[in-house]
Amino acid sequence: MSDKPESAKNLRTALLQFVPFREKLIILEIPQEDGSFLENKVLLRQPSVAQRDRIIAAAQGSGGKMDGDRIARGQALATIYCALDPDSKQPIFTEADIEALVESPAGGPMDHLALQAMKLMEVAQSNVTKSTAGQE
Asked: What does DSSP say about strands 83-84 and 37-45: parallel, antiparallel, or unpaired?
């Protein structure tokens, strides 16, 4: 009997259990009222496939087209799903924070955080594209 079923089972186990998420530690400089900056560390973790789908859906809407408000919502979800406390590895934000994130100042710490989170998502997608190129 062929060992292909066992080999497929081992590959399945390896893919489902061992694939690590990419992580990036960043330092955010948060401006204070006195003009100084408070440095905070934030751990960004690559979103899961399901989270990435929700981020894209939020950014595109049902018509599949992006506009400013929808892009802001996608960036906010990316921040919610990807930004973790570096010590506890627990999420910093919840979906209850989406409006506050959307309304935060452009170019501020939250904008920078969202951009970095979106980059992690794009890295994940480009890896999938590279790994499936030429297989059609």
From this structure: antiparallel
Q: Which amino acid, 12?
A: R
pLDDT score for 18: 66
pLDDT tens for each residue of 8-34: 788 888 777 766 777 788 877 777 778
Six-digit token pair at 10? Answer: 């081992």
**SS3 label, residue 133:** coil
Q: How far is CA 90 from CA 15, 42, 47, 85, 128, in A?
A: 24, 11, 14, 6, 26
- pLDDT for the residue 57: 85
Rounded to 10°, the helix 68-82/109-132 angle is: 80
**Residues making up the chain, counted from first to last:** 136
